[in-house]
Design a protein that fits this description.
Elements (H helix, E strand, L loop, with lengths): L2 E13 L11 E15 L4 E6 L7 E4 L13 H14 L6 E7 L9 H16 L6 H11 L10 H8 L5 E5 L4 E5 L5 E7 L9 H24 L7 H7 L4 H6 L4 H21 L3 H17 L6 H12 L4 E4 L7 E7 L3 H13 L8 E4 L6 E4 L1
Parallel strand pairs: 3-5
Antiparallel strand pairs: 1-2, 1-12, 2-5, 3-4, 6-7, 8-10, 8-11, 9-10
The structure holds alpha-D-galactopyranose.
């Protein structure tokens, strides 16, 4: 039987939070921590998965274009991938036996679940000799993830699949477009895990989906305020009304108004970050993004706020929460010469001197998911 190893990295988002499902841009990078699946092809349509993570039970399913969700099972991300590929292929697909291992912290805003989905998809593709162009794969993977019930955007899957080693990416949506972005020369990116778990399939999912709905409702209010009709995303409003602020000001005070203000200004910050000519400018925009995420989008936590404060006070150029929020990680950018001081301050003031490599680390911009035949 043919054997493969598939790899899918996590991602950290530098700027552009909760813009993706509004079809507005993001700027993530793939990190040098990843999920690996050792894959052995099977002759039938079954998938059996083991996981080396402690306390994780084996899981299995039959590939079809209608695979039942199993409540609270980590294997749902593999089911999501398999169902999507089965529909795409329009013919019976073969399964595999797989062992999943990971050095990517889970439920921490580094997209371990999307990495598992992408890795599982690559496993199915490898054993069935399916080859798909990257952007088409990223679109398929983003759609596939809706299987688990999150009305997510397409940032994570695209970053995991399309990233180029040494670069961050600016991602535009609908149509999906990836532009590699060189980070400033003399900075490093630090990730600090707040240790507050933000399970994508748990309570954070409800809060996440509430914001997706809030943006939709807010868009309707904006359209009324401006007396225009436009497409179904905040992006469409922004294109129709580039000077959107007066219309935000006309909205009734409340979540919808705050959510729309965050998303539209965050999109401007991504464009500014893409055009930024210095590390200071990029850092400044990251800081503004955190304030907007915290005050308007209301997705920060006291723990994330503390990490951000300590990082800035110890010399970071920029620090902000990253990913969906409600816990998870912060991303910090610092000059290489300031990195030891920032790490030291975070270790002492946030982790009580006990930070390990798994919770506080620097990341290298890495390449996207790939397969090796053994
Ligand atoms: C999660 C989702 C992404 C994106 C971020 C917030 O990671 O999976 O699609 O919406 O939250 O920017």
């Amino acid at each position: 039987m043919r054997k493969f190893r598939v790899y899918a990295p996590g991602r950290v988002n530098l700027i552009g939070e909760h813009t993706d499902y509004n079809m507005l841009p993001v700027m993530p990078l793939a990190v040098d921590k990843r999920i690996t699946i050792e894959v052995e092809a099977r002759d039938d349509n079954k998938v059996r998965l083991a996981n080396t993570a402690v306390g994780t039970a084996d899981t299995s399913f039959v590939i079809s274009d209608n695979i039942p969700v199993v409540q609270r099972d980590w294997g749902n991300y593999a089911r999501a991938a398999s169902q999507a590929l089965s529909k795409w292929a329009g013919k019976p697909l073969k399964g595999f036996n797989g062992t999943v291992s990971s050095n990517l912290p889970s439920a921490s805003g580094l997209s371990s679940s999307s990495a598992l989905l992408v890795a599982s998809a690559l496993a199915v593709m490898a054993v069935n000799d399916i080859h798909m162009e990257g952007l088409a794969f990223a679109d398929l993977a983003a759609d596939a993830e809706r299987y688990v019930g999150t009305k997510g955007g397409g940032m994570d899957q695209c970053a995991i699949i399309m990233s180029r080693e040494g670069y961050a990416s600016k991602i535009d949506f609908d149509p999906l477009k990836v532009t590699p972005v060189r980070l400033p020369e003399d900075v490093d990116i630090i990730v600090a895990n707040s240790m507050v778990k933000a399970e994508k399939s748990g309570a954070a999912k409800r809060e996440y989906n509430r914001r997706v709905e809030g943006c939709r409702k807010g868009l309707d209010m904006l359209k009324k305020a401006a007396g225009i009709d436009c497409g179904p995303y905040l992006r469409d409003f922004k294109v129709a009304v580039p000077d959107y602020m007066p219309y935000i000001a006309k909205m009734p005070v409340g979540d919808e108004r705050d959510f729309c203000e965050h998303v539209l200004t965050e999109a401007d910050r991504v464009e500014a970050a893409f055009a930024a000519s210095s590390a200071e400018e990029l850092g400044y925009l990251m800081n503004l993004s955190h304030e907007s995420c915290a005050n308007l989008y209301k997705i920060s936590t006291p723990e994330l706020d503390k990490i951000v404060r300590v990082a800035r006070e110890s010399g970071a150029l920029g620090a902000r929460l990253t990913g969906a929020g409600f816990g998870g990680c912060a991303v910090v950018m610092a000059r290489k010469s300031d990195v030891p001081g920032v790490l030291d301050a975070l270790n002492k003031e946030y982790y009580g001197g006990n930070a390990t490599e798994n919770v506080l680390f620097t990341v290298r911009p890495s390449g996207g998911a790939h397969v090796k035949e053994e």
